[in-house]
Amino acid sequence: MKLATRLTILLVVITTVVALSVGWYAVNSSTHSAYAALDNTINSVVQSGEGNPDAALSDAINVDEENNYDLTLDVVFANGTVTRIISANTPLVSTPTLNNVHSSLSAVVSESNLPGFLVRSLNIGGGDYLVVAASTKSVRKSSQQLIFRVVLAALAAAIVMVLVARLFMRRDLVTMGSLIDFASDVAEGNAHEPVPPALGSKDVRELRHALATMVVALQEKIDIESRHAESMQLFIGDASHELRTPLTVLKGYTELISNPEVSAEQLERALARMRKEIERMETLVTDLLLLAELRELPEKSMEPVDFSAIVSSSVGEMRDDQSARRIDADIAADVWIRGRRDLLERLMTNALGNVARHTKPDVAVRVGLHRASDGVELRIDDAGEGLPEYGTTPERFRRFDASRSRDSGGSGLGMSIMFDLAKAMSGTMATSASDLGGLRLTFVFPALD
Description:
By secondary structure, the protein is α+β, with helices and mostly antiparallel strands. 57% of the residues lie in helices and 15% in strands.
């Protein structure tokens, strides 16, 4: 069922219910007033004869005639016989009994054997009674007519409300219909046109804006997923190539050492090369597993970590291992971030390891850790040869310098691992030219409140 139809049905139901509720109150009030008027008419006749039984009958007749009341007056004698004194336009058909007389002496009542009438009795002396009866036919007829009019008014009000609502909501309904069709096209992947304009109320304009935002976000998500799928294909191809190379080497040397004529010197060289390829393949697999782990790292695994202590410890180890290198450090104390100690230690190992691997032993290094306006910033500068380009997101297995062979440059995952490590802990990594002449790595992490 369309939204416009639902809104129409809702308006009809609400308008009808409201109109009928008001009408019911009006009918009930009118009927109650009519019955109260009948009660007052009967009581005025009865009260004229109360307190003076000898003149009660004549007084009651006089009041009835003077006011031209439409009442039936019957005299019920002590022996139960009944004589009609005055007959109304709608006369009392059934004969009142002494039981009716006694039950109606104090108030106007309706009796089951006198249907359609209100009655009250008056003592007129000598054991005789006057019964005053009024027909309720006109009240019932008026109530039925009023109910019919109320129903017609409710239907008319519902029709008018629908027409008015349609008139005022036409633009909204047309716009919402267009938005629904557009959303269906988006869901089916057939949306090639922009989001339809919203010409209706503020709510519809907000709906259109929300839909446009959702479509943009969805398109960006699709583009990201497409790029991820493409990157994954390239990643799988590169990974298979990188793993195939050491396997090919191992296969070749296995065939070599299986030759009984191979010399001891050749055997030693083959085993050394095989060990080296195994170690490189083991490092590559470990790095690949780490990258896969970083993509699925849960947020709840993060905890407050003393980043100052980790950076200071890593710099100290580098000084111990490379005594010929000048290392300047400006590390702020008591800097804490939210992360994981093992991942931050791996980040520092990769960053400083790259410097050690790709620069000469006497090239200067500068490490700085301090609080910045946008969080916590770690800078690592070197005076090496730098990179041919900066600021780009690292690609898997990409070596920035073609001269860096697998023997000296690793698998090409170092930059990618650092980038993903920072991202996993809600941080960022950027490369730029250092004022020392080489590469600057800049890591920014959210400060721990």
